[in-house]
Specification:
With about 160 residues, the chain is α+β, with helices and mostly antiparallel strands. It has a domain of about 70 residues. The strands form 2 sheets. Strands 1-3-2 form a 3-stranded antiparallel β-sheet, with no helix packed on it. It has a 3-stranded antiparallel β-sheet with strand order 4-5-6, covered by helices on one side. A hairpin with a 4-residue loop joins strand 5 and strand 6. Helix 2 runs parallel beside helix 3. It starts with 6 loop residues before the first helix and ends in a 23-residue tail after the last helix. About 20% of the residues have low confidence.
Length: about 160
């Protein structure tokens, strides 16, 4: 039995689109005036802050990586993902990285093969970006406040008579 395009499926797809937009900082484009979430046309991430005095918030429009094949294809090209369909297993595998680790999506878990392919592309890109982020964090650890020596802080001299 295949999954249908319903609100739950679309909410999961949009959540994955938000996740990849959060991880990949090069995909954000700002558009003024969007308020809220519209599943039918475009999805907006709210940015800015309330009470800035202007009454206008800026929103960031997300590409439809899980909902439009052209956007998913551009994402696959950008991240050099390898897509392989296995019609005997009824699955699509999207590989990434030097060892070509892969994400497998079965056709039955999605409304059609196209949706399964888009889901595999997005999930592989998310996994790849998470691994890159974690690798960069391991190579460049930040200095935490707990590792600082207490003696390195400035000391205050008490005021009083000499």
């Amino acid at each position: 039995m295949t999954q249908q395009y319903d609100q739950d499926y679309l909410k999961k797809a949009i959540a994955e689109e938000r996740e990849i937009a959060r991880l990949d900082l090069h995909v954000r484009t700002s558009m003024p005036g969007g308020l809220g979430l519209s599943i039918d046309s475009n999805v907006y991430l709210m940015t800015g802050h309330v009470g800035s005095g202007s009454g206008i918030r800026t929103s960031e429009i997300l590409p439809k990586w899980r909902r439009h094949p052209r956007a998913a294809g551009a994402l696959a090209i950008k991240h050099a993902l390898n897509i392989k369909h296995d019609f005997e297993e009824c699955a699509v595998t999207v590989g990434y990285g030097p060892g070509r680790r892969g994400i497998v999506e079965h056709y039955g878990a999605h409304p059609d093969r196209q949706a399964a392919t888009m889901a595999a592309i997005v999930r592989a890109a998310i996994q790849m970006l998470i691994e890159k982020r974690d690798e960069a964090a391991a190579l460049n650890p930040t200095r935490s406040k707990t590792s600082r020596r207490p003696g390195a802080r400035a000391t205050h001299k008490p005021k009083g008579n000499p």
